[in-house]
Specification:
The protein is mainly alpha-helical. 55% of the residues lie in helices and 9% in strands. It has a two-stranded antiparallel ribbon with strand order 1-2.
Length: 66
């Protein structure tokens, strides 16, 4: 099974508020052209989580560190 990183773990690592992180990710995932991998992995009412080292995780990190 691949290693999974959750939004909670990512927020702790980056020292950011999970509520603000979810808001940023929701708005970014709606822009399919700018963030195609993030948009593909997003599922409504599902937890934010990614496979470690995936393109979607990289996009999420980039969005959260802006």
């Amino acid at each position: 099974m691949p290693d999974i990183i959750t939004l909670k773990a990512l927020c702790e690592e980056l020292k950011i508020d999970p509520r603000e992180a979810r808001e940023k990710l929701r708005s970014a995932s709606s822009d399919v052209k700018a963030n195609p991998e993030l948009a593909k992995t997003r599922r409504p009412r599902a937890p934010w989580q990614w496979v470690k080292g995936s393109k979607a995780e990289s996009e999420a990190r980039a969005i959260l560190t802006k």
